[in-house]
Amino acid sequence: MNDLIKKTIFSLVLLFLIISGCTGRKSDSTNIQETPAASTMDNLALTPPMGWNSWNPFGMNVSEKVIRETADAMVSSGLMDAGFTYIVIDDYWQGTRDTTTGILSCNPDRFPSGIKTLADYVHSKGLKFGIYSDAGTMTCGDNPGSYGYEENDAKMFAGWGIDYLKYDYCYCPDYGSENNDYKMAIGRYRTMGDALKATHRPIIYSICEWGPRSPWLWGKEVGGHLWRISYDVGDKWDEPRNEHSQIGILTAIDAMTDLERFAGPGGWNDPDMLVIGLKNEGFIKGGGCSDEEYRTQMSMWCMFSAPLILGCDVRNMTETTKSILLNKDIISIDQDSLGKQAFRVLRLDGMEAWKKPLSGNRIAMAFLNRNSRAGFISVTLEQLELDPNVDYEAYDVWKHETVKQPEGGMAVTLKPHECYVFILTE
Ligand code: GLA
Questions:
Q1: Is 16 helix (H, G, I), strand (E, B) or coil?
Q2: What domains does the chain contain, in order, with CATH numbers?
Q3: In this predicted structure, what is the pLDDT of residue 242?
Q4: How far is the CA of 281 from the centre of ligand 1 (A)?
Q5: 17 has a pLDDT exceeding 60
């Protein structure tokens, strides 16, 4: 078959698939989404994206049913109103790639109505819809990747009404020499970034290279709105960085340290998704965390202006999980318009103080106890790099009240692995 015939077949099949949803088994009547101007892409993610992703709770068991029920639960639980708007299907939505046409289909058993129909459903709830692919020949779960098909896939995703793409880095050759390795990653991410821009649809571009090639240095330049800075976070408190296993919450906190200058409106350091509420019952495991540890993940991710991507089964949340995820005060710190990532100002016997400038001349201050024993920290305003002449008012974002603090300083008693967060106003 010559190239012209191949291209013509591809275009016709692509058009058909866009209109009918990916399997073509069932067509639906919704038209292709309107396509706003390209400049809209640059105004995306002015605050860190918030949503839900299927990987942590469902992994390879994701399905159309799960996504629909999750969309319903995001609305009924109040998560959508709290700002969690993106529903992202991670790996395992794919079927096969037709090597003649290049068309990638979805898994017809788990997604019988096709992706477009599902995206329409999610949109009808007022939510946004995201999908996953990979810069290599295959995804991390051995499904077809987008390498060599970036333009085709981007067009197809845009036609389906996708608002967010998580783009992984499995099955990319390891070039050995550091420089070439960097160049390859930048090149591959730029190719997809350009392809997404060319669709003129505002699509959040989530770079998932895990950190070894420092994506904070080039993520924004290739069109990214967020970039993973570390390996997958498991449902566990602490485990050192290791390419082949999931890391703990504390390990991810450490990986975020000193990266504050690379985050800001439009582009964010991503320490991975939330494990809050998994209780070792999700697809990804790790032994589970205490509610205190989950609360600490929420606190520190918000201090970091990290993307808040939920990773639990939102159809079945405990009251405690809901109270952590729906805390509007802590979310307001994450979504603050200044978009500053917290930096550490103090470390004392396993206790730490983190500071994040907020809009309106306010400051968020977090105290973290890394130790597995309770602890007490009492420090002066100078030690916290605060103005000793100001009588700050301290609002406790977990108690939702203004609390008294010692004159000229701050003091807190912390449970093991606990994190206290205050908003300080002059
Ligand atoms: C990688 C990513 C995860 C998830 C899986 C899917 O491990 O880091 O977040 O997307 O792939 O296979």
A1: helix
A2: 37-334 (3.20.20.70), 343-425 (2.60.40.1180)
A3: 65
A4: 18
A5: no
Residues, the chain, total? 426
Q: What is the mean pLDDT of the chain?
A: 91
Sequence-separated (6 or more) residues with CB below 8 Å from residue 408: 380, 381, 388
Q: Give dist(CA 61, CA 64) in Å, integer.
A: 10
Residue 153 contacts residue 193 (beta carbons within 8 Å): no
Query: What is the pLDDT at residue 177?
Result: 73
Residue-wise pLDDT for 265-290, tens only, equals: 999 999 999 999 999 999 999 999 99
Taking residue 106's Cβ as centre, other Cβ atoms within 10 Å add up to 26
Beta bridge mates, 419? 368
Structure tokens at 81: 């109103």
SS3 318: coil
Backbone angles phi, psi at 214, to 5 degrees: 45, 60
Q: List the one residue out of 94, 80, 91, 86 whose CA is nearest residue 55.
A: 91
Ligand 1 pocket at CB < 6 A: 55, 90-91, 139-141, 168, 208, 232
Full-model pTM = 0.92
